TrEMBL record:
Annotated Beta-lactamase-related domain residues: 10-343
Domain of life of the native organism: Bacteria
Gene3D superfamilies (alphabetical): DD-peptidase/beta-lactamase superfamily (3.40.710.10)
Organism: Microterricola gilva
Protein name: CubicO group peptidase (Beta-lactamase class C family)
Signal sequence extent: none
InterPro entries xrefs: AmpC-like (IPR050491), Beta-lactam-related (IPR001466), Beta-lactam/transpept-like (IPR012338)
Amino acid sequence: MTGSSHADTDAVFTGHLARGAAPAAAWGVFDAHGLQHLNSAGAAPDAAFRIASCTKSFTAAAVLALRDDGLLGLDDPVTRFLPALNLERLPSPRSAVPTLRMLLTMSAGLPTDDPWGDRQESLTADEFDALLSAGPRFESEPGTRFAYSNLGYAMLGRAIEVAAGQPYRRVVEQRLLEPLGLAATGFDETVGAAGGAVTGHRRHAGGWEPLPLSGPGAFSPIGGLFSTVADLAIWARWLARAFGGPGDSDAEDDAVLSAASRREMQQLHRIDQDVTGHPTGYGFGVFVEQYSPTSRVISHSGGYPGFSAHMRWSLEHGFGLVAFENATYSRVSEVTTEAFDALLATRVAKPTHAVWPETRAAQHSITDILTADDPLAEPLTTTLFSENVELDQPLARRRSALRLALADIGGLDGAEPEAETSEGPAHLVWFLAGHSGRLRVEIRMTPEAAPRVQTLLITADRAGR
């Protein structure tokens, strides 16, 4: 990452503060090798802020850790862990009982509840039981649509306690914070951040009004954590490492939560039907945005009285941003996304996979066939091609189409594949240079133990020269 890119990132955040967004902010850029840039204004770079709903990723990870230990199942009904929950107000007699999976993916049928939920942090266990016994209202059939629910994640916190036989906060500390070395992350302002804990504010009478901190309670699973930019960057990198690349997940990472479970967290499990543009939805404790067919971005925002937070990273490009501000509704997510997208525009995606050796061998064999003096003259061998290739388009027709394509590009001008792309290990596209264009070749391999070519597409690309 270049110094100029850091300067541009700094300008985004300092400009936001200059427009009166908050009294203080801290932000950082990280990649697979660690935190590459850290800066702040109005607070120490290593100060702790409330990360608010970014906490939900920790709650989800704790659920999966207990699932992996056999202490709960994602499709268990929530009533297994919350017997006090009154479900009399389900939408219909045929409604499904909400499951832990529905709660994880924000699809349990509960309405969005941010302003209310943000004020329930300190609720006691007895007060939470009374809330559950009175019965929540549902706005849709459980399991049918996305709606962001803090109450749902508070229910998950109680499920964690019942399954683990320990308080929610202790489960997160023992299973996640301590083994990952997140010493500056915790559930109150006494967290061990070298820069101390920042005070939250809201706008009042043309200035900033400090706000008291709510203490840990039954709603801590929705947003109770404090953290620093450096610690939250470690957390995000640990999640992203599950997909491989530099800093690959190792046994120490997997001892906390397996790479498979971390990948499971970062899948789009429930589409957000209200978002336009690129597909966006919820995984387990994180949002998933499909920027393009080959670019997936993981994120979560946090908003609590006096605080705003955002974390965002690219799985394919291997970098991310974390940012905090100490003001209610400061919209730090918007400027973090702005800075992230500016960095994204300057990067070429790192490879997310290598093609199979059989895919590469098939490329070489097919390139030899196409650059022969009489291409496609010999029958297609069943060791290289699966039976469907001849059935889908007989060899004679393939030869005829190839001659037309070669004529269209004035014949081949080289035998070296170029500009290759791939959607996965079993897929490859490459080009062969012609005199007035290129020959585009695409193959896809079978899922057999010894993969063979099941798709062979050859077309002329006159615009490529």
